[in-house]
Design brief:
Elements lengths: L16 H26 L3 H28 L1 H18 L2
Helix pairs in contact: 1-2, 2-3
């Protein structure tokens, strides 16, 4: 089942619309990655599996593109991402 945009973008303040659009776009791309990878795991057709996995990889690139734009616009998000990485280092050593 695919996600729904978690907010009504029409109700977002104009100053926040771009960051909310980027977050919604990231959600959509992650849904696409999940869908294609799940379908690839179900098929026994090696060609179809390869295409689905290639398309999933492209969607991951899209996530990175949208995330880069988001991090350029939302400095708090950037700081929290760094904090999350540090917490993982402390918890699991990675």
């Amino acid at each position: 089942m695919l996600s729904k945009i978690p907010i009504n973008l029409e109700k977002v303040e104009k100053k926040n619309i771009d960051t909310e659009i980027l977050r919604a776009a990231i959600i959509a791309e992650l849904d696409a990655v999940n869908l294609y990878e799940q379908m690839a795991s179900l098929t026994e057709d090696k060609n179809l599996k390869a295409i689905l996995m290639d398309v999933a990889k492209e969607e991951k690139t899209h996530v990175g593109e949208f995330q880069t734009l988001l991090l350029n616009r939302d400095k708090q998000q950037t700081e929290e991402l760094k904090a999350g990485k540090e917490e993982i280092k402390e918890e699991v050593g990675e």
